[in-house]
């Protein structure tokens, strides 16, 4: 072998060196001798021309160790008989020229050589750089040549870095020894007449972009393992680009090229793993050949030309680029082949097989193109083939697309599979399965099965050109997802699909049968729907199992609905049974109905009834209290259906007469369990109208669709009730503003010097306490003698802002929804004191309201005008006040109904309201800081005169628009409670703090209103809105300031609380008295 040749020569070199040592012209300093000298650690510099300084060697006697030799630029070291440099071990840096008749640089043991740019190292007979017993480390930027033998040789490990522009050449470019590691990093040129790089142990190669490794025989060879990363060019002229005896791992980058005449990549006894983004080719051989296994990943930019062979093992290939076998098989394995061909991937062979598993299973997932020309097979397995061909993918063979010569096939096809001269798909034994949602064509047959137990499933999108030859007892199926049509006349003994004895409908697809069939086997429907618009009466039996539906307007033979569904027609239609019909207890007879007709089943023989009749709406129109004929038969033999299931809100019953079954429907919205009061009121009104008319107008059909109780809630128009509570709240706020005994300035005259000193004045809201002496003395400083009430200030004017919000919870039993209202207004008024104890006045107000009913049931708003009068009288510590008010509103409501489309309904109307309040109380003085305590009682009413009005559609239709009846609603209430007050003297003013705590009782909390559907006269009902509680707690807090100049200012915050109502309101009053 080559390594023995090199080693022997080097040994000869060592002998000659020792024998011929003698004096010669020396330019390297210090000189070397046999001592050995120079000693370790010495640096030798060669700066001139050195020839045979040590006998036959340019420099060194072969026993110098641990030295450093620097050959300067322009210098040369020459051994005319033996080596240019001969040492035991050393570090050599060359910037000049080193030449030896045998070796350029020779070391008995390890040597490290740096050959700089422009420098040369030449060994004429043996090696440019060599080691007899050690390792070699080389960094080359110049030229290293072993003319007749090795550029760089290591008896043990070789570590070579060959930089860009550098060259290593020889019969062998780089050679590493037995059981060692040869590690080559190349960006330049490594050229071997025989081998570019040979490793007798393990080879590691990193060939950068622009790098070239070439050999006249092979580019790279390793005896044990080989690991290659390539972005340049590796080529073997007559044999292999890469060769290994053991296993090989290759990464070939996008710019990388690996070529070989016999094979680009070869593993003589091991396996190959390749990740390729570049080019791997062998125009006359194989791109990759392994005696064991192949694992190939070919990227989008990858190109593999010449085919790939796993002679005794498996081939696992993932391809996104191009794999071409040229005249060879593109992918071959002795055992199993597992191929994933991605989108855009191409696997081709010009005259042979595309993919071939000679003794194993071919498993292929294809999203690209797999083709074989000539008389080849695109995919071939001698045992079994498992193929998934995705949408848009192609598999084509000059002979056959997919072939399992001695085994079965399992094919799922969404793309295209074709065999030009033979079959699209061929199976050599039984138990095969083909699922097709794509295209399958064949010259001899599209699909050819052998044996028994084969299954063909067609899915929507299936196109089969050519015959399908079953084994004689195979199963034909319609399945997949979606919808498609099949001509049943193509299934039979002499038809396109032949050799099948069972016909199944599977999966969730809907298949429509046309034509007249001759198929005589069993038909089973187990999934989706089989719509028979043709004639399959030739079938021996048709069985519809659970999960399957039989429909259509065609003809069937003996039929059993065994837990499945019979649904005649295509929507409303008729199916004919030429034979007998049997329903099992778990069967469903699905009958679609409209106002004009219903589904019908005509049975020429006897019908055995059982199971459930389920009614479905074919359209929005229905016929009530008028029978539909749903089945006729030669005889019923006393059988009956077990039950009738109707859509929510519809009731149904069956009648039997002879061989006829009739269905009678009625509106039963009011029979729905769990309806609330509002829903049931609407339902009852609609039932009454629908059943009276005998039909459902098409526009109202949507009431029976979807969530029927929710539809009834939308139809109820509860929004109309919201205006009642909002009006009561608005009137109550205004009348309380008028009648409030705390309103600024109404509890007595404006403060004067005299009034500060009064004792027990009857006009100061109510009788007071007797003041202590110190306080009387203070007041005496203002007016020594208390005078009469200052009755000169008879007039006062005032302005107020008031408003609030109220939320009333809905009631689940009533079916009302939470209502929220908001009110805001501004009032102005005038008061006149007709006596020291009696005060009268009036007020005008303007404002607005809005209200919302929760859950999307609508909203409303109004513009508001109010007017009122009041009177107040005191008698000692007692008082009585009263008020009467009138209100006028311009109200607009809007709601959206989505039962049938989206209808926006609006109503606009004017309404009047009245309110009144009377209150009386008695003020007591408590011993606690002079706090006044006034128990009081009040009676109040609010009346809302709601006119009749109607909604109109401003978007959509008037179908669910309501007309509301006129209504006068009165809400009386009583109040019991107490008020407190405490006055504080401020400079020039009096600050009074007040509060109220009370209990209110409402006597009428009904918020219902009568309504009628405008498009359905007579369909009237009463809908109830959110109602307040009968009892509520009242609270308020007031701060009032009065000044001597006649101005007063007060602010009040009020609340009303119950288990269903939360209300907050406030008012601010400013008054001037004179």
TrEMBL record:
<dbReference type="InterPro" id="IPR005546">
    <property type="entry name" value="Autotransporte_beta"/>
</dbReference>
<protein>
    <recommendedName>
        <fullName>Autotransporter domain-containing protein</fullName>
    </recommendedName>
</protein>
<feature type="signal peptide">
    <location>
        <begin position="1"/>
        <end position="26"/>
    </location>
</feature>
<dbReference type="Pfam" id="PF03797">
    <property type="entry name" value="Autotransporter"/>
</dbReference>
<dbReference type="InterPro" id="IPR011050">
    <property type="entry name" value="Pectin_lyase_fold/virulence"/>
</dbReference>
<feature type="domain" description="Autotransporter">
    <location>
        <begin position="790"/>
        <end position="1074"/>
    </location>
</feature>
<keyword id="KW-0732">Signal</keyword>
<dbReference type="InterPro" id="IPR036709">
    <property type="entry name" value="Autotransporte_beta_dom_sf"/>
</dbReference>
């Amino acid at each position: 072998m080559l390594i023995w040749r090199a080693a022997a020569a080097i040994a000869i070199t060592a002998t000659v060196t020792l024998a011929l040592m003698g004096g010669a012209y020396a330019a390297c300093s210090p000189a070397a001798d046999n001592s050995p000298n120079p000693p370790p650690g010495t640096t030798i510099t060669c700066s001139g021309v050195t020839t045979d300084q040590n006998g036959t060697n340019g420099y060194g006697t072969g026993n110098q160790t641990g030295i450093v030799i620097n050959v300067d630029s322009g210098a040369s070291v020459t051994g005319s008989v033996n080596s240019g440099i001969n040492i035991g071990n050393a570090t050599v840096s060359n910037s000049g020229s080193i030449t030896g008749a045998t070796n350029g640089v020779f070391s008995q043991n390890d040597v490290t050589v740096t050959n700089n740019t422009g420098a040369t190292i030449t060994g004429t007979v043996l090696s440019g750089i060599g080691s007899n017993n050690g390792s070699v480390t080389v960094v080359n930027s110049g030229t290293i040549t072993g003319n007749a033998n090795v550029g760089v040789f290591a008896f043990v490990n070789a570590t070579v870095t060959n930089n860009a522009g550098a060259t290593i050449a020889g019969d062998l470019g780089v050679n590493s020894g037995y059981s060692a590691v040869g590690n080559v990093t190349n960006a330049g040129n490594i050229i071997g007449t025989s081998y570019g790089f040979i490793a007798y142990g393990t080879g590691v190669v990193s060939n950068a972009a622009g790098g070239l490794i070439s050999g006249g025989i092979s580019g790279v060879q390793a005896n044990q393992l080989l690991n290659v990363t390539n972005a340049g060019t590796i080529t073997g002229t007559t044999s292999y680009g890469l060769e290994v005896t053991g296993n090989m791992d290759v990464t070939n980058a996008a710019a990388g090229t690996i070529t070989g005449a016999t094979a680009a990549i070869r593993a003589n006894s091991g396996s190959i793993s390749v990740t390729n983004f570049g080019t791997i080719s062998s125009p006359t051989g194989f791109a990759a050949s392994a005696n064991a296994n192949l694992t190939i990943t070919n990227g989008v930019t990858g190109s593999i030309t010449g085919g790939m062979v796993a002679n005794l093992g498996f081939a696992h290939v993932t391809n996104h680029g191009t794999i071409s076998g040229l005249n060879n098989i593109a992918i071959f394995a002795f055992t199993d082949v597992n191929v994933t061909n991605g989108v855009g991937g191409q696997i081709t062979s010009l005259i042979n097989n595309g993919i071939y598993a000679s003794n194993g299973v071919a498993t292929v997932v294809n999203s690209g193109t797999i083709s074989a020309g000539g008389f080849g097979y695109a995919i071939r397995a001698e045992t079994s083939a498992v193929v998934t061909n995705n949408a848009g993918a192609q598999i084509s063979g000059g002979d056959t697309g997919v072939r399992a010569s001695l085994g079965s096939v399992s094919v799922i096809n969404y793309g295209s599979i074709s065999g030009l001269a033979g079959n699209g798909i061929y199976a050599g034994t039984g138990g095969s399965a083909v699922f097709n949602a794509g295209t399958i064509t064949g010259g001899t047959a599209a699909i050819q099965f052998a044996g028994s137990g084969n299954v063909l499933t067609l899915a929507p999108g299936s196109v089969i050109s050519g015959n399908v030859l079953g084994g004689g007892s195979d199963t034909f199926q319609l399945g997949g997802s979606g919808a498609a049509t099949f001509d049943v006349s193509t299934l039979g003994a002499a038809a396109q699909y032949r050799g099948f004895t069972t016909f199944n409908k599977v999966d969730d697809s809907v298949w429509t049968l046309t034509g007249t069939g001759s198929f005589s086997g069993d038909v089973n429907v187990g999934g989706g729907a089989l719509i028979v618009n043709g004639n399959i009466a030739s079938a021996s039996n048709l069985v519809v199992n659970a999960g399957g539906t039989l429909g259509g307007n065609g003809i069937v033979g003996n039929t059993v609905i065994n837990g499945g569904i019979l649904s005649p027609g295509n929507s409303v239609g008729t199916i004919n049974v030429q034979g007998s019909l049997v329903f099992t207890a778990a069967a469903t007879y699905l009958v679609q109905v409209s106002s004009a007709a219903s589904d019908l089943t005509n049975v020429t023989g006897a019908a055995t009834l059982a199971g459930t009749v389920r009614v479905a709406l074919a359209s929005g129109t229905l016929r009530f209290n008028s029978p539909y004929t749903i089945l006729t038969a030669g005889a019923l033999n006393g059988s009956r259906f077990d039950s009738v299931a109707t859509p929510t809100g519809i009731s149904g019953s069956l009648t039997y007469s002879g061989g006829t079954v009739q269905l009678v429907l009625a509106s039963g919205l009011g029979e729905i369990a769990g309806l609330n009061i509002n829903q049931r009121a609407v339902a009852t009104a609609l039932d009454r109208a629908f059943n009276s008319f005998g039909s459902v107008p098409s526009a109202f059909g949507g009431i029976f669709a979807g969530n029927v109780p929710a539809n009834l809630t939308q139809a109820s128009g509860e929004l109309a009730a919201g205006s009642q509570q909002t009006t009561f709240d608005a009137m109550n706020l205004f009348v309380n503003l008028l009648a409030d005994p705390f309103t600024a300035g109404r509890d007595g005259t404006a403060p004067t010097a005299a009034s500060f000193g009064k004792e027990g004045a009857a006009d100061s809201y109510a009788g007071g306490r007797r003041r202590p002496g110190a306080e009387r003395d203070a007041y005496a400083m203002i007016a020594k003698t208390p005078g009469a009430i200052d009755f000169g200030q008879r007039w006062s004017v005032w302005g107020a802002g008031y408003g609030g919000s109220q939320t009333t919870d809905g009631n689940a039993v009533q079916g009302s929804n939470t209502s929220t209202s908001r009110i805001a207004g501004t009032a102005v008024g005038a008061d006149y004191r007709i006596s020291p104890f009696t005060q009268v006045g009036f007020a005008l107000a303007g404002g607005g309201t809005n209200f919302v009913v929760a859950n999307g049931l609508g909203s409303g708003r109004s513009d508001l005008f109010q007017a009122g009068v009041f009177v107040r009288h005191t008698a000692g510590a007692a008082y009585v006040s009263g008020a009467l008010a009138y209100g006028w509103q311009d109200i607009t409501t809007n709601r959206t109904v989505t039962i049938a489309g989206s209808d926006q309904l609006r109503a606009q109307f004017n309404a009047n309201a009245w309110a009144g309040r009377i209150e009386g109380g008695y003020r007591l003085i408590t011993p606690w800081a002079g706090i006044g305590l006034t128990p009081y009682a009040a009676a109040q009413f609010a009346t809302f005169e709601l006119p009749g009005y109607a909604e109109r559609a401003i978007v959509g239709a008037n179908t669910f628009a309501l007309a509301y009846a006129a209504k006068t609603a009165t809400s009386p209430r009583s109040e019991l409670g107490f008020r407190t007050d405490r006055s504080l003297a401020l400079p020039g003013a009096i600050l009074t703090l007040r509060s109220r705590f009370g209990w209110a009782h409402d006597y009428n909390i009904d918020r219902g209103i009568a309504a009628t559907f405008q498009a359905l006269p007579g369909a009237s009902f009463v809908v109830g809105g959110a109602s307040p509680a009968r009892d509520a707690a009242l609270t308020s807090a007031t701060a009032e300031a009065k000044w001597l100049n006649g101005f007063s200012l007060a602010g009040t915050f009020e609340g009303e609380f119950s288990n269903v109502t939360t209300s907050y309101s406030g008012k601010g009053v400013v008054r001037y008295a004179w």
